[in-house]
Amino acid sequence: MFHFFAKLSRMKYIDRWGLMHNTRKENLSEHSFESAVLAHALAVLRNERFGGGVSPERAALLALFHDATEIITGDMPTPVKYYNGALRKAYAEVEAVARGRLLALLPADLQPVYDPLLSEGRTGSPEDQALIPLVKAADKLSALIKCVEERRMGNTEFVQAEAAMRESLRQMALPEVACFLSEFLPSYSLSLDEQE
């Protein structure tokens, strides 16, 4: 008996943004789905507008699994995770252990298939390497969208996080992200009726 997929189903119990007041809770399953949709969109933008040749499907798949280790580690708040080099290194080691524990829940013949997915593509093909920046951008876009939605609901708790996410995305200097920010992000500030 192998527990990998049952363990993944527990992503819905991992809440994000634990240190902040939320008008609506967001769990890891929701974030992973949204990140997958956004990674797919960024890959499509790269291919259609910037002459890329990446797989949107693979981008979505990598994004879908990008935070799976948090089933074991929980959602470490960004300010803590990236506070300094020592914490960053320690957290990377914790993630590696969590990745190993998750892989051990699979039969041996399936582990090589899931290892690159749980490693966010780092152990995969050159194409996976090319997709890593898009997956990271999708992860940040998902966080930015959460900030925009919280601010729209009157929650000022996310104002600084929103500014930090916008700056982080700007520094990535990806044209696909710039397109998404100008063409699609404004809709997240609108009501349902305004989105018609």
Automatic annotation (TrEMBL):
SUPFAM superfamilies per the UniProt record, alphabetical: HD-domain/PDEase-like
EC number: 3.1.3.89
Residue ranges annotated for the HD/PDEase domain, each copy included: 24-153
Record-annotated membrane-spanning stretches: none
Record Pfam families: YfbR-like
UniProt entry keywords in alphabetical sequence: Hydrolase
Enzyme class, broadest EC rank: hydrolase
Protein name per Swiss-Prot or TrEMBL: 5'-deoxynucleotidase
GO molecular function: 5'-deoxynucleotidase activity
InterPro entries assigned: HD/PDEase_dom
